[in-house]
Design goal:
Layout (H helix, E strand, L loop, with lengths): L2 H6 L12 H10 L3 H8 L5 H14 L2 H10 L9 H17 L4
Helix pairs in contact: 2-3, 2-4, 2-6, 3-4, 4-5, 4-6
């Protein structure tokens, strides 16, 4: 699955099968279900989950909490638009699924 296919799946009622929890959280976030997305990532320990967690708190306007999660993800808060960051995260996660060494 690539980013375009992933974004097209947002027209569906349910997420595609086989998504990682991190991608599932991004899918629900894009569908407007912030709480569901947050519930998925809040207990995950991966740097990718922390990055998504940061995005979610950035979306809600809690920059201090977002910055905490960016540090946990070893990233800095970007100056890009929220949707661009969402695409960056999704693209990175989808690329990691298709790499032979993943």
């Amino acid at each position: 699955m690539n980013l375009s296919t992933f974004e097209q799946s947002l027209q569906d009622e349910a997420p595609p099968s086989g998504l990682t929890p991190e991608l599932m959280a991004l899918w629900w976030d894009a569908k407007g279900h912030w709480d569901r997305a947050h519930q998925i990532v809040q207990d995950l320990a991966s740097p990718e989950a922390a990055w998504i967690h940061a995005l979610l708190h950035r979306e809600e306007g809690d920059q201090r909490n977002a910055d905490y999660w960016y540090r946990r993800a070893a990233r800095q808060r970007p100056s890009t638009a929220l949707h661009q960051e969402w695409q960056d995260i999704a693209g990175t996660l989808l690329d990691s699924l298709t790499r032979p060494d993943a």
